[in-house]
Structure formats: C-alpha cells, structure tokens
TrEMBL record:
This is thioredoxin-dependent peroxiredoxin. Residues 2-160 form the Thioredoxin domain. GO terms for cellular component: cytoplasm. It comes from the Bacteria. GO terms for biological process: cell redox homeostasis; cellular response to oxidative stress. Keywords: Antioxidant, Disulfide bond, Oxidoreductase, Peroxidase, Redox-active center. It is an enzyme of class 1 (oxidoreductase). Its EC number is 1.11.1.24. It catalyses: a hydroperoxide + [thioredoxin]-dithiol = an alcohol + [thioredoxin]-disulfide + H2O. One of its GO terms (molecular function) is thioredoxin peroxidase activity. Thiol-specific peroxidase that catalyzes the reduction of hydrogen peroxide and organic hydroperoxides to water and alcohols, respectively. Plays a role in cell protection against oxidative stress by detoxifying peroxides and as sensor of hydrogen peroxide-mediated signaling events. Coiled coil: none annotated. It holds the Pfam family AhpC-TSA. It comes from Thermodesulfobium acidiphilum.
Amino acid sequence: MFNEGDKIDDFCLNGIDEGSNEKVFCFKDLIQDRKNLILYFYPKDNTPGCTTEACDFRDNMNFILKYAAVAGVSPDSIVSHKNFQKKHGLNFPLLSDPEKKILNLFGAYGEKKTYGKTSMGVIRSTFLITPDMILKKAWRNVRAKGHVNAILRYFENPDK
C-alpha cells in the first residue's frame, strides 16, 4: 500500500476519456500540463454515493483543473463506465480495474463495514499524485458527500 511521500510505479488501465473514447491510460496520459493528478477510487457506477461524488467532481472541474487533472477508478466495465458518464455528463476519464490490481496497490480494496456488516469491497479513497509520481496526499475511507469540498479546501490551504 502506498503512503504519502512514496514514489508511485507507473500503471496502465483500460478506460474512457471525457468523450467516451476507449483507450489504455497510463499515468503519463493522465497528467495534463504537468499538473498533479487526483486519482479517486469508488465502488460502483450509478449508485447514490458514487454518483454524488462523481457529480461533485464534474461540477467543480473548472476550479480543480487549476491544480490537478482528475480520473476515477472502479472495478466496473467500460460499458458500465460509458453509461455512467453519459447519464451524468461526467467530464473526466473513468478507468476500469476489474482485477483490482491498482485498487490493491493503493489500499483502496479490502475489508470494510457497511451498515454494520463486514465485507470485501472498494474503500472510497482519493490520492493526489505529483507529476513526478510522488503520492502527495491520501484521503482514505472517505464519505462521498462533502469529500470534493475537502479536496477544494486542501488546494486553498495545503499546509493545513
């Protein structure tokens, strides 16, 4: 599992760009204009929490792009991602990790509790990665509602 300050190995996943075009994305493709990358992991397309979080990223993209590019990752298929993106007008890439390789590397897959029940699944998490592939900030096991606002507050005052 990566921790803040760690160097991230390059990775590649299948996904769709903001125009729903299928392609293989490697880290270098996700970094735009040598900005940071917000890589966020979410459990499932078109579920209430994941929709809230994705739409919050979408609605704040003009501000976020001053600091970082954004990409979402879940185990869902490309077809599922295309439907999710189209239904909600999402303006950032969605990557598919059905084997959970990248999810596991970031510690975003594992045991979690939902409504008091323990199960294995995606742990909603977000990572800020520098263009030099250093994990600058990790937000682990977050709630969908209000999470993007926490990221925005961080960008406004990263020393806090």
